[in-house]
Each structure stands twice: as C-alpha cells, then as structure tokens.
Amino acid sequence: MKKKSVLDLKRISQEEFKRVEKISLTVILDNVRSLNNIGSVFRTADAFRVECIYLCGITATPPHTDIHKTALGAEDSVDWVYFQDTYEAVDNLLAAGYEVYAIEQVEGSISLTDIKLDKNKKYAVVLGNEVKGVQQSVVDKCTGSIEIPQFGTKHSLNVSVTAGLVIWDFFKQLGI
What we know:
The protein has 176 residues and is α/β, with parallel strands linked by helices. It contains 8 helices and 7 strands, in the order H-H-E-H-E-H-H-E-H-E-E-E-H-E-H. It has a 7-stranded parallel β-sheet with strand order 3-2-1-6-4-7-5, with helices on both faces.
C-alpha cells in the first residue's frame, strides 16, 4: 500500500468549498477556552462540509495563530459568526427553523446512537466549555440533548473529540 499524496487526494480549493453544498448543520461553541480545540473543530467542520460555526462568549475567533495551528486554514474555508451570548445564538437558530441540540449529559437525553435525522430539516449542535460543559440556560433553550455513550471511568470527552464524533454521525445521516 502506497500512501496517497496531497495531489492524489484531489481536495477542493477554499473558493470551491464556499460554493459547494454543505450538510444542514451549524456547530455552536459555548465558551470553549482552548484555541487548539477551536481549531480542531474548524478542521473537522471543513472535512465534513459543516454549514457554519457559531463562536460564543469567551470562544476566540480567527484570525489567531493558535487556532490556525490546528485548523490549518479551515478557519478560512468554514463560515463562522461570533455571538457574545450563546443563548442569543441558539434563539436565532430556533427562530430560523433549526432543531438545536446540546451535546450534554442531561436527564432525558437521546443517545447519539439513537438519533434519527431528517435530511429536510436544519440542525445545530451546542458544544460546551471544557470544564463546565454547555450552560444550563442554553440546555434549557435547546430542542433536546444528545449524549455520547461512554463505557470507561471518565465522565466526559475532549470537546474537539466530541465534535468529531457528532459531526461524523450527522454527516453519515445528512450526507451530501
């Protein structure tokens, strides 16, 4: 087996990325502290053609060297919007007809393995702060909550890992 070169991968340009169809998913980062996590979410969002990222609260915005370190330019291809208040971002998406899910461990959450998505609907997911998770007021505003099943000793995953799992699962169901 020969590793593929960058040319073998035949990736689209940033200009083409702006024009191509995206999956009906917006990712909301609720007070995410780590610039590396933010960059990783951008890179995953680029890989699976996420519609937009909402950066909220203390979440840093591009351009920033440390975001770029992990995003590797995806911060330039994926559309993003900044909101001072995550609650306001969720409110705007709900008003625009999105179903908004907190990715959080809450009573009555839906397992990521059980979520059934409709290609005719628009979705958003809220990923929370590395320590505190998604704010309770934001969870209360959401359509529902999705929980990633875990079977080890830890009670949570890194936010960028969580984003990867959730975005991939949404991509598999919503596809392009």
